[in-house]
TrEMBL record:
It is found in: Membrane. Pfam families: CbiQ. CDD domains: EcfT. This is Energy-coupling factor transporter transmembrane component T.
Amino acid sequence: MGVEMLSYIDKKSPIHSLTGATKLLCFIMWSFAAMLTYDTRILLLLFMLSVTIFVVSKIKLRDVSFVLLFILIFLLINNIAIYLFSPQEGVKIYGSEHILFSFTERYNITLEQLFYQMNVTLKYFTVIPAALLFIVTTHPSEFAASLNKIGVSYRIAFSVSLALRYIPDIQRDYRNIALAQQARGLDMSKKEKLPTRIKNASSIILPLILSSLDRIEVISNVMELRGFGKNKKRTWYSERPFNRKDYIALFFVGVLLILSLFVTFQNGDRFYNPFS
């Protein structure tokens, strides 16, 4: 059986050995470092580090290939939308214009626009591996404990944990229902035309919703019977104390954040301008 999409993948790696709270704090700092800057030098450094960390985690590309494909499609649509709605954004930012191709007075291809959209793409490529690693290397129970450890209400933290646990359950239910429907004669293979496949796939939605509602009712009854939410605090079985690796990771990512902010704002501008 293949790996469930966006579910915890148990491996023996330095990334897995870090506590959930450490990975959460590192991810927050990493996201701030990538999102606050448009300095290409910083983004390239973070991108290379994110690829290195991904390799160290021992997570295979095929384990997250579907999510990556979906994100790449969204990224392509985002880049097209940026150009359609603001084709001169790079020219405005960098204060110069080097035209490569010209279609109309408004729509042309400039080095500045390409450079700006390359930086936007780099931001995605920097944050996406970190986000995927955080999800697939952190057990849902430990994730809930880490949220609670940084001050989030344990009720909210537990709800997030349940949502993450529920993703693979939905996938399994979908596959089981799809197989049952195919056994009844509904063909959803590539042999059928796309409209027919979409119509046949829609027959899975109602059983999937009903099975989901049934599971939600069971879980809510169990939580109510056990008195969930009665006390203001709770303990966590999966919570782990910080160790040396955690402090090293937090220090390293903290230094990266400070370096990113320093390089980005040293000239009072978030944008690195190679055209000046």
